[in-house]
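Protocol step 4 of 5: obtain the predicted structure for the target chain.
Materials: sequence only (see below). No template structures provided, no constraints applied. The aim of this step is simply to have a reference model before the mutagenesis design in step 5. Sequence pasted as it appears in the construct record:
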Amino acid sequence: MDLSEYGVLLRFLIMPWLFLLFLIVIFRVGRSGVRFRDLVSSTQDGPAHPDRIATLTATVFVAISYIVIVMNEQAIVLGSGDNSRYLMPDIPAEMLLILGGTQGTYVGKKIFDRFREG
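Step 4 output (structure tokens):
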């Protein structure tokens, strides 16, 4: 089996698994096993926090974008024969900037809230 056949095989195994995982999460959210409100609010009846919404949105966006990049790019092979290794593609700098910005906003708000409280 050459490298392109492995890529096709992995694509047909990973995509249904990710889709099944997505369906399980949607099912659990629909049955209130996982509440979206808990992800974006610090208290049960409290308001949604913009920093949490931004962090959650950016994380989901970057994760999906990276999965698409991995599926569309050819695998990088180092070495040959039994000594060959496959490498994942690099995460683009723009994605790291998005993640860093939203995580920094979240941590900054947490620090600000701690100083304001006490």
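Step 4 remarks: The first helix runs from residue 3 to 30. The helical segments are 3-30, 36-40, 50-72, 93-117.
Proceed to step 5.
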